[in-house]
Amino acid sequence: xxxxxxxxxxxxxxxxxxxxxxxxxxxxxxxxxxxxxxxxxxxxxxxxxxxxxxxxxxxxxxxxxxxxxxxxxxxxxxxxxxxxxxxxxxxxxxxxxxxxxxxxxxxxxxxxxxxxxxxxxxxxxxxxxxxxxxxxxxxxxxxxxxxxxxxxxxxxxxxxxxxxxxxxxxxxxxxxxxxxxxxxxxxxxxxxxxxxxxxxxxxxxxxxxxxxxxxxxxxxxxxxxxxxxxxxxxxxxxxxxxxxxxxxxxxxxxxxxxxxxxxxxxxxxxxxxxxxxxxxxxxxxxxxxxxxxxxxxxxxxxxxxxxxxxxxxxxxxxxxxxxxxxxxxxxxxxxxxxxxxxxxxxxxxxxxxxxxxxxxxxxxxxxxxxxxxx
Length: 374
Description:
Blueprint: H1 12-22, E1 28-29, E2 34-36, E3 40-42, E4 45-52, E5 62-63, H2 64-70, E6 73-77, E7 92-97, E8 103-105, E9 110-113, E10 118-120, E11 124-126, E12 130-138, E13 147-148, E14 151-152, E15 157-158, H3 166-174, H4 178-191, H5 202-205, H6 210-228, E16 235-242, E17 245-252, H7 255-282, H8 294-305, E18 309-313, E19 319-325, E20 328-337, E21 342-352, H9 358-370
């Protein structure tokens, strides 16, 4: 069922006022209850902690990563005996939750194996002791067999602790375009100087160049350590930018949920920063080391907020409220809470468009020209 809800936007003057206030020592407001904390700057990667004054208790939700490690969840190809010979489908997988707690799965989760590597295209909450289908998009178009690098997969997937890069996430989660996903895989691999035989995004994730891995590790450790030092239950999310360009923001209902899901995002933002550094060096460009503008991040968030929103049912316990326009996409993973007496958001995402339109790019450049960076 789809249902439209009201628009929300904020004038540029209001955005700039909030950013200027942050320069005087106060936090940068995102909305009535959330704000950006002190930014973390590591080379060309800018990361902001997101804080809230209203963390929400949600009960126990296990991450897919933890469940896979414990053997209480399985991701596999769909069915047997279908039109493709065994029922497997490119754009749908099955998730079995054998555990006693619901699984919270975030869009952009990469699964490795099966007949081809995929990314999961939606936020999904899977009830305990249940099996449900999940929307998926191929990130490896050169394989359709249950064998990967000489190993039989049996139609089952590993779940590496890394998310799809921003370009891939946006093309799948918000644009729902498999062709665009493939094009973005090729773009990311080309930037990383990879040309895998099966055109898989995992080739960039599984980098074997020690120098590039060292860059990625340095970025990861710096962000990880800074978040670990934030001894504050009000920290519930993050936002990040690479080379000054805002890419994404993700928040959770409470710090426990953030901590269960943060590591894969840290790995991905570090990967994106490392690949961009490599591209700049190959092009002979000077390394980018300036802090990104929080005004640009807020402009992206507010720009996405101008889109009409619709509610989409899922196969799980949640529904997703989504928006999409030239700025990018936004999704709220909503579950029913008896304690709250209605629906609450377990997690929310804002992701910049896979390719920025010229009007959007001009607005971001105008902010920089006006001096609203921190």
